[in-house]
Amino acid sequence: MDRKGIFFRLSWLAVALLAASSSLIAASANELEPVEDKILILFPYHALLVLSGLLFLIAGMVCARYLKGKRWWLKAHRTLGIAGAALTLSGITVAIYMVSASAGLQPPGGPHASLGIIVSLMVLFTPVLGFVQLKKRDKRLRLIHRWSGRMTIALMMINAYLGWMMVQSFQ
Asked: How far apart are CA 13 and CA 18, in angstroms?
């Protein structure tokens, strides 16, 4: 695959989105506003980053599942997975800031926050496991990586639903 391929462009798009969102977050967080306004300003960035990450992770899973006949599938899977993990972790960082701005340093509560912590650990664990299983060539690790990826995506979808329900309850 040449450097101008679609996956190379998608990874740069993810980096650009991450950089733009972090500059907007920094600009909005520095303004003197009540805590509720900061949360309302930052919530769309959290949702956009996490849902973008979810879409990239789904695309990476689809690539691994249905495009294994292509020579470039592994590069595409790896690029989409890393971009999805970076976007997701960026969105979780925004959520941590929102929680700390609203509740101080108290640990987050509720199912959305609890599942978000689990998802963040899974998003870190799954790519690391993927790289390890490539180096070791162990079929058991490959199986664990596959199911870890599936569980991560499923838990992210459930958590997106819980987040949506939480937003609906505030209105």
From this structure: 8
